[in-house]
Specification:
Layout lengths: L1 H35 L10 H33 L9 H17 L8 H26 L7 H6 L5 H19 L7 E2 L2 E2 H26 L9 H18 L6 H26 L8 H7 L7 H18 L3
Antiparallel strand pairs: 1-2
């Protein structure tokens, strides 16, 4: 009876820490800025700065997603012995997307980079093709569409992360080509389009996480967090996109909470590996069979993109 009590206490402390960390982040930067400059001397942020900063943050989010895909697909495809030569493609495209995102994150120019744009397009196409391969892997097995095949065949949501990496990066590049005043994407204000993209990405990620945590029988109560917190974030981002531009402190706070959820999720997955037979001493086997370490940062990447979209949306008319 003692072990469940310790587990419950750990869960409550860590989930409580999520809220405290998000609240602290929400208050720390304004306080620090206020100490540096008098309120009346704080330089206003121009629309052009917001415009380019949002694009750079989408590049950074793309690189974080690419890193997650690179590590996850490397482990999973190694476990599959790279049986199909096409299994090397996501590693190559994720690596290119990672470096393109890092480069774009430091590029302050208001013009798209053709090489980065091409890399992002390649990553998105690789993600679409990977989804097709994984669908075929599920349906070709005995039983076709069954819970067993959805649980243990090639994960359907994994290539989607690569598609999101390419998509977020391409959105950032297109945003650079828009005018600083009232930029538009897909025929709508850019902030609205970005918020909708983040909301859709969160929904898809939650579906994949929910399936895998259901496979794990939600044996730890903290496993409910990534299927309860991000859907609220997705709904708030949809509301941001469809509502009128205005400050949304609750949405910002919830996005920061989702950012920390992804980071703390890595610690929980590391703990899950440690609880496997042999723990981290048997890392070469338990990393393959335990919970995937690179998966939770997907929430962090999407939440950071959401913060950039929220900031841009607030400047729109």
């Amino acid at each position: 009876m003692k072990q469940p009590q310790r587990s419950d206490t750990t869960t409550l402390l860590l989930l409580g820490g999520l809220a405290v960390a998000a609240a602290a982040l929400g208050r720390r930067r304004p306080a620090r800025l206020a100490r540096r400059l008098p309120r009346e001397k704080v330089p206003p942020v121009s629309e052009e700065q917001v415009h380019i900063t949002s694009a750079r943050r989408f590049n950074h989010s793309s690189s974080l997603l690419a890193l997650s895909v690179l590590a996850d697909s490397g482990v999973e495809h190694y476990r599959g012995s790279f049986e199909n030569p096409a299994m090397f493609i996501p590693l190559a495209s994720a690596t290119l997307s990672l470096f393109a995102g890092l480069h774009g994150g430091h590029d302050r120019r208001s013009a798209a980079h053709p090489v980065r744009h091409g890399i992002y397009a390649f990553a998105a196409l690789a993600g679409l093709a990977g989804t097709g391969f994984h669908l075929y892997n599920v349906t070709k097995r005995t039983g076709g569409w069954s819970w067993n095949n959805l649980f243990y065949a090639a994960p359907l949501g994994a290539p989607t992360a690569l598609l999101l990496s390419g998509g977020l990066g391409a959105i950032g590049e297109r945003l650079r080509d828009q005018p600083a005043e009232e930029p538009r994407l897909l025929g709508m204000p850019a902030g609205r389009a970005l918020a909708l993209a983040v909301s859709a990405g969160l929904v898809g990620t939650v579906i994949e996480v929910g399936l895998l945590h259901f496979r794990g029988a939600f044996q730890h109560r903290a496993m409910y967090a990534p299927v309860l917190i991000p859907p609220v974030t997705a709904a708030l981002m949809a509301g941001t996109a469809l509502g009128r531009p205005q400050p949304r402190p609750l949405t910002r706070w919830w996005l920061k909470l989702t950012t920390w959820l992804g980071l703390i999720g890595v610690a929980f997955h590391a703990r899950g590996i440690a609880r496997c037979q042999g723990g981290w001493r048997n890392w070469s086997q338990n990393i393959l069979s335990g919970p995937p370490l690179p998966a939770p940062p997907s929430f962090t990447a999407l939440a950071l993109a959401g913060l950039a979209a929220l900031r841009l949306r607030q400047t729109e008319k």
